Amino acid sequence: MSSQDVTIAIAVGDSALRAEVLAAAAATSAHVTTVEDPRDFPRHLPKASVVIADKLTAALVAKHSVAPVFFVVADPGPIDYEAALKCRSAEAFIVPAESKQLLSALADQVRPREQSGGSFALAVVGAAGGVGTSTFAYALAVEAGAGLLVDAALYSGGLDLLAGIEEEPGARWPDLAAGSGAVNATDLHRAVPRHGNLGVLAASRSAHAQVATLKPARREAIFQAAALHPQGAVFDAAPGDIPQVCEHVIIVCAAEVRSAAACAQLVGELRAQQMACSVVVRHRQWSGLESEDIANIVHCDPIAEIPTVRGLTKAVETDGLRSIPRPLRAAAQRVIDEVLT
Q: CB within 10 Å: which end of the chain, N or C, has fewer?
């Protein structure tokens, strides 16, 4: 991974201090993100390689960051060490007096990652029902060499069924309800059933209400852990409940008018939230639209197409998707080429 793939998140509440910190961070070759609104902390901070905070944001940063934190205070100081400890700061700096020292510390955080592997967090959602969202999410995870595939939809039939590993031992969502605090990505991968190296965190199936209910904070902590897996993660999600840790959303849109209309609305909402998204066209038994038509409707050029794959539904129903058909693999690879490279 190059240093440009490393993200420095500036979560500094004081606007004047934020500008000084931005000037120092910009001198590195890393990507710099300024997160001014605390409501955006859950979406940006878990993906950052290093976070910079001040006394106004220290408490919130501690809740959402798993990366090293640098604490800053404006000239002439002094450093509020109580606030620095609150955000588990690795180092503290008086800025701009110690801007050079801050830059040096940031550079040390950037350099070690240049030789390490990259991670990613992609969400796959459907613009309509029955477009094969879960199937494509699984194909994308396999082709991308992801470490984890996560069932992020509350009411799911189970990705372990799709992968043909429903008999494999390992934790499903209800098994992870207990516990609190941060979750380790490696431990999560080790706990869930696997298809090859791909760990699959799936929903469980029961005709009764689940006894173990996941609290939102616990669910978010698990999402954050998955997103930090060194080999990346793919989330099979619902359009209205996309995990905030995802950095890019893949929308599977049927080549049909109603699906395209729903896709247009979803693209607009994601762009308003400054969430990157791409469209993949799915041709079912009959397609009323071409990719060019969909591009005009949703104002987003599709990056891949999934043709009708004969026998796919039967294969999934009878034995799971143990072998991914070539057309599906090709579409997944085009997404990888466009989004991850």
A: C
Q: Is the pLDDT of residue 124 over 50?
A: yes
Per the structure, the complete domain to which residue 330 belongs is given by 121-339
H/E stretch holding 124:
strand 121-126
Q: Which of 82, 115, 148 is the last residue of a domain?
A: 115
| Cβ atoms within 10 Å, residue 91 | 15
CA nearest 14: which of 44, 62, 43, 57? 57
What are the b/e assignments for 265-279, b being 16+ CB within 10 Å?
Answer: ebbeebeeeebebbb
Domain boundary (81, 115, 149) is at: 115
Query: Do 130 and 190 sit in the same domain of this protein?
Result: yes
pLDDT of residue 104: 77
In the structure encoding, which two tokens stand for residue 110, read together?
A: 């950037």
In this predicted structure, the answer to whether residue 259 has a pLDDT above a threshold of 90 is yes
pLDDT band at residue 206 using 50, 70 and 90 as cut-offs: low
Q: Are residues 100 and 212 in the same domain?
A: no
pTM over 0.85: no
